[in-house]
């Protein structure tokens, strides 16, 4: 019943919005479908908080889909493509989900965007360590440190692009 009401509400909103902004429509769709994530946009990055106690393979697939929309700028505002993944609510992570996060992070860096994970619970950190993924991923203890890394990487990219223009 709720799913039909949400779909109808989304359809009605879609008809009411005459804009061609697909990102806004996609964001509305995700909000109305009660995603298990909280999404916030800052000046240099988007922050996603996983709002579930366990990050499963199916949930990580949803997260990957949403994060890729950020990377391709289908979701969000401006040209912000950096992402901070806040994991403090997550108490457990499935191995396929952990591997998916490592692949997602690699795709962000290959595309010239930052992806920082922060606020891991000890059990999640242990799972990543046992899977030999912890050292491959950009992880910080706090959200504030994640912000700092994104800002430093942005400065680094700007400096490197300036050097390439001079050559």
How does this model look, in words?
The protein has 2 domains: 1-34; 36-166, STAS domain (Transcription Regulator spoIIAA). By secondary structure, it is an alpha/beta fold. The strands form 2 sheets. It has a 5-stranded mixed β-sheet with strand order 1-2-4-6-7, with helices on both faces. A two-stranded parallel sheet has the order 3-5. Strand 6 (115-118), helix 5 (122-130) and strand 7 (139-140) form a beta-alpha-beta unit. The chain has helices at residues 2-16, 22-32, 57-71, 95-110, 122-130, 143-166; strands at residues 37-41, 46-50, 54-55, 83-86, 92-93, 115-118, 139-140.
Helices, by number, come to: 6
Number of domains: 2
Assembly category? single chain
CATH overall fold name of the largest domain: Transcription Regulator spoIIAA
Mean pLDDT: 82
Helix-residue proportion: 40-55%
The structural class is alpha/beta
Strand order of the largest sheet: 1-2-4-6-7
- Could you tell me how far the N terminus lies from the C terminus, measured between alpha carbons in angstroms? 61 Å
TL;DR of this structure?
With 167 residues, the chain is an alpha/beta fold. Helices cover 54% and strands 14% of the residues.
Question: What's the topology here?
Answer:
Blueprint: H1 2-16, H2 22-32, E1 37-41, E2 46-50, E3 54-55, H3 57-71, E4 83-86, E5 92-93, H4 95-110, E6 115-118, H5 122-130, E7 139-140, H6 143-166
Parallel strand pairs: 2-4, 3-5, 4-6, 6-7
Antiparallel strand pairs: 1-2
Helix pairs in contact: 1-2, 3-4
Supply database-style keywords.
alpha/beta, 167 residues, five-stranded mixed β-sheet, 2 domains, two-stranded parallel ribbon, Transcription Regulator spoIIAA, 14% strand
């Amino acid at each position: 019943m709720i799913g039909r009401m949400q779909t109808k509400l989304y359809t009605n909103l879609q008809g009411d919005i005459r804009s061609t902004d697909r990102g806004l429509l996609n964001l509305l769709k995700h909000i109305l479908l009660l995603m298990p994530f909280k999404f916030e946009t800052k000046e240099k990055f988007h922050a996603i908080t996983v709002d579930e106690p366990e990050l499963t393979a199916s949930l990580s697939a949803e997260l990957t889909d949403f994060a890729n929309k950020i990377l391709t700028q289908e979701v969000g505002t401006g040209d912000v493509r950096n992402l901070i993944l806040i994991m403090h609510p997550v108490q457990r992570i499935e191995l396929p989900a952990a591997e998916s996060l490592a692949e997602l992070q690699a795709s962000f860096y290959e595309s010239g965007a930052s992806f920082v994970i922060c606020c891991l619970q000890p059990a999640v950190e242990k799972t990543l360590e046992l899977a030999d993924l912890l050292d491959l991923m950009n992880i910080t203890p706090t959200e504030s440190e994640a912000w700092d890394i994104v800002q430093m990487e942005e400065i680094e990219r700007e400096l490197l692009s300036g050097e390439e223009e001079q050559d």
